[in-house]
Amino acid sequence: MKLPEVIIRLPDWARSLMDDAPRIFPDMEERMAFVVELSRQNILHGTGGPFGAAVFDDCGRLITPGVNTVTSSNCSILHAEIMAIALAQQTLGRYDLSGGGKFCFALFASTEPCAMCFGAIPWSGIRVLVCGARSADAEAIGFDEGPKPAGWTEALNQRGIDVKQDVMRDAAAAVLKEYAMTGGRIYNPELLI
Amino acid sequence: MKLPEVIIRLPDWARSLMDDAPRIFPDMEERMAFVVELSRQNILHGTGGPFGAAVFDDCGRLITPGVNTVTSSNCSILHAEIMAIALAQQTLGRYDLSGGGKFCFALFASTEPCAMCFGAIPWSGIRVLVCGARSADAEAIGFDEGPKPAGWTEALNQRGIDVKQDVMRDAAAAVLKEYAMTGGRIYNPELLI
Fold first, then answer.
1. In which region does residue A183 sit, left (phi positive, over 0), alpha (psi from -120 to 50) or beta (all else)?
2. Domains along chain B?
3. What sign has the CA pseudo-torsion B101, A137, A51, B190?
4. Which of A115, A188, B97, B146 has its CA 20 to 30 A from that of B125?
């Protein structure tokens, strides 16, 4: 019997965005602008939901981007944050990005993480989470963020993970609105009840 | 620039287990015995943590197994449940296993899901979660289950997902103990605080 497999990879269009990216993104806003652009390009190319993410080191070097490819990959796991984390770990050759506490990698997300991505962050070795749009902005266009605990930022803080919210929130939320206005698919699973 | 990629696939040893599996697993205990065996084989082959999972349809047909390959794949995302879900979606060609509410797939997990896998379940279209060992059994040998809400079973129930606990708990927990006693790696990320 042939074993099934799923390949986690960026859409082809991401290559030119990576090739054109600066070697260092000097500040937080430039890093967030890059992930918001990922979310916008993902809509334009029809490769998934309006969400982008990326892992950067503390010098602002881009390690790996991620975009939501749930619909194009037929895989509900492939949120932008999950892709960015998995590809960063592959690139760096370890499942704990902190390298036992030696390194400080940041995950930038164009929208605050859903319940799954929130739960994935402590396992990743990510030490800083930087968010653009709020969960409420995603919910406003119909996306479900899942059963995430109300005190999710504190829960990450308690594990030594710093959380910054509202970095370029307006620009990130504008992409969500654009997605909804242009008839983008809100691909929550059917309500089962 | 070459784009990085991560391949989600079962270890080679899983092939013979799948080839030898019955076409139909008639009852819940036989399905759970299969995932507990996956967790045991994963230890024996040194391919990851002591956790197995599988997606079955409501006739008891095995769709796809999953095992934890965090350490062997260098990917903190690759818990057994995530692998079973992603491979099942790939096999069936859709990111919502419920097919819009038409189908009733069950996820069997040798141990209750961590915070990440809990958050992944509502996105998967899984309608039934069946658990062997308790989170407390995994915690007893040093594994961290993450910031999962206290009322996690009710949170799934509210989304129309049925949860069954303690199915062959003793057998599932025995594998966890065996892993700890034989010096298995407890691969939580370093405490960052």
1. left
2. 21-180 (3.40.140.10)
3. negative
4. B146
Tell me the pLDDT band of A190, cut-offs 50, 70 and 90: low
pLDDT in tens, A17-50: 999 999 999 999 999 999 999 999 999 999 999 9
Q: For B28, phi and psi rounded to 5 degrees?
A: -60, -40
Structure-block tokens of residue A28:
């937080």
Instruction: Classify B1 as helix, strand or coil.
Output: coil
Q: Is B154 a residue of the active site?
A: no
Cβ of residue B71 closer than 8 Å to a chain A Cβ = yes
pTM: 0.96
Instruction: Please answer yes or no on whether A77 and B76 come within 8 Å at the CB atom.
Output: no
- Cβ distance B87 to A6 less than 8 Å, yes or no, reads yes
- Partners of B71 on chain A (C-beta within 8 Å) are 95
Which H or E element spans position B76?
A: none
Sort out which chain A residues have CB atoms less than 8 A from B144's CB and list them: 122
Q: Check if A98 contacts B (Cβ < 8 Å).
A: yes
Neighbour count for residue A77 (Cβ, 10 Å)? 29
Task: Using the Cα atoms of residue A122, residue A123, residue A128 and residue A130 in order, give the sign of their dihedral.
Answer: negative
Above 70 in pLDDT, residue A71? Answer: yes
Over residues B110-114, mean pLDDT? 98
Neighbours of B4 (CB within 10 A): 18
Beta carbons of B14 and B29 less than 8 angstroms apart: no
How far is Cα A31 from Cα B138, in angstroms, rounded to an integer? Answer: 38
CB contact under 8 A, B74 and A94: yes
| Arithmetic mean of pLDDT, B138-142 | 95
Question: What pLDDT was estimated at residue B190?
Answer: 56
Catalytically active residues of A are 81
Phi first, then psi, for residue A37 (nearest 5°) are -65, -40
